[in-house]
Amino acid sequence: MAQVFNKLYVDVRTETNDIITAVQNDSNSRFLDVFLLDNGLPIDLTGHDVRIYGAKHDGTEIYNDGTITEAANGRCQFELTDQALAVANDLTVQIVIYHDNVQILQSLPFKIHVVKSLISSSAIESSNEYGALVVLYQNLYEAYDLMTDMVQNMGKKGTIATERNVDTFWKMLEYMAKYLDTDLTTLLNTVLSEASVQGVIDRLGETTDTGGTTTAGTVMGKLNGLLSVKKYKVYKKLIATIPPGTTPKIILSVSGAGEFYGLQGTLTDVTVIADGVEYSSLSGGSNYIYKPSVASSVDGLFYASPSSSQMPSYSTGVMPFKDSFVVVVSGTAGANVGIAYALYE
After folding, report:
1. Antiparallel, parallel or unpaired: β 4-11 and 30-38
2. Taking the complete model, does pTM exceed 0.85, yes or no?
3. Are 35 and 42 in contact (CB under 8 A)?
4. Is the pLDDT reported for residue 153 higher than 70?
5. Residue 275 and residue 237: Cα distance in Å, rounded?
6. 263 with 245: CB under 8 angstroms?
7. For the chain, what is the HEC assignment?
8. Buried b (16+ CB within 10 A) or exposed e, 318-329
9. In 77, 113, 239, 272, which residue has its Cα 20 to 30 A from 142's Cα atom?
10. Which residues contact 60 (CB under 8 A, 6 or more apart)?
11. Which residue segments constitute the domains of the chain, with CATH numbers given?
């Protein structure tokens, strides 16, 4: 489409005396290519809008938006619409600069001479043209529509908002932002600190920890507390017959923790090995080696009843062991040997 651009320098401090001509009823073809100046320097149009106002010879008006093409250089363009050129005579115009839809600066009026067209059979009837106002109204209508939708979608404040005295959407956002910056951040930092690897290690504790209870202490402290409670199984007793001329022989070997109470017999060569440590010279006479605490029918160990000769030889000694216990015996004559011990659960 053929288009004609009339370059024009408009200084807001001085009158524009350039001769500008156009032909009546031209449409979509004639444009003003304007450089807006202030005392010879370009006006920066960044963030602004430009519009053109015109008064025709018949008293009707035009008011249309322009297009900013080079904001830093103050360059903009305006279409001379068919309504702007509807009346053959001088069209007096002004260029107006807006910022946020507020008029801030306008040029001095200048004239555009509209030459009468010889083609009049389809002449355009002159009327007011407020293109800029139509756009503004359309924008306002769309904004109203948008605000209506927002109000309907946002609804009304509820009980919690009322309790916290937040009446507007932005107050609610500010309340949430403050919560995120302070309360929630503190809570998250606390949780993350407690859930850290070091925090888990601290709660597990060391193997030497003690003092664990149902409500306090480390895991290891609680375990050690359980292990420190000695629960015994039923007392054990072993009676073995040793044949004559027996060479060293293991008659008892147990694993685990427990206590050794005594051994009864006439053998003279007895070795007790507790946790790998050998004991061959144990207390008592030839009949008792590390004598049991008691030996009567009451505890069910060896004797149906104690005798006066046996009673003075009894002792209350106990030999504890943690991992293993072994009894090795030998003798020149056959004998019955009884062993009393207990194992921890």
Report:
1. parallel
2. no
3. yes
4. no
5. 20
6. no
7. CCCEEEEEEEECCCCCCCCCEEECCCCCCEEEEEEEEECCEECCCCCCEEEEEEECCCCCEEEEECEEEEHHHCEEEEECCCCCCCCCCEEEEEEEEEECCEEEEECCCEEEEEECCCCCCCCCCCCCECHHHHHHHHHHHHHHHHHHHHHHHHCCCCHHHHHCCCCCHHHHHHHHHHHHHCHHHHHHHHHHHHCCHHHHHHHHCCCCCCCCCCCCCCHHHHHHHHHCCCCECCCEEEEEEECCCEEEEEEEEEECCEEEEEEECCCCEEEEEECCEEECCCCCCCCEECCCCCCCCCCCCCCCCCCCCCHHHCCCCCEEECCEEEEEEEECCCEEEEEEEEEEC
8. ebebeeebbbbb
9. 77
10. 83, 86, 87, 126, 127, 128, 129
11. 4-136 (2.60.40.3350), 159-191 (no CATH), 196-227 (no CATH), 236-343 (no CATH)
In one-letter notation, the amino acid at residue 90 is D
- Phi, psi angles (nearest 5°) of residue 241: -95, 120
Q: What is the mean pLDDT of residues 190-200?
A: 65
Both tokens assigned to 119? 């083609």
Confidence at residue 97, expressed as pLDDT on a 0 to 100 scale: 96
Residue where the block lists tokens 């503004």:
136
Which of 287, 286, 284, 273 lies closest to 319 in space, CA to CA? 273
Please report, to the nearest 10 degrees, the dihedral formed by the alpha carbons of residues 331, 333, 334, 340 taken in order: -40
Is the pLDDT score of 173 beyond 80? no
Structure tokens at 329: 């015996």
What is the arithmetic mean of pLDDT over 212-240? 70
Looking at beta carbons, which pairs linking 90-95 to residues 24 or more positions away fall under 8 Å?
90/57, 90/114, 91/54, 91/55, 91/56, 91/57, 92/54, 92/55, 93/52, 93/53, 93/54, 93/55, 94/52, 94/53, 94/54, 95/10, 95/34, 95/36, 95/50, 95/51, 95/52, 95/66
Phi and psi at residue 293, in whole multiples of 5°?
-60, -45
CB 39 within 8 A of CB 11: yes
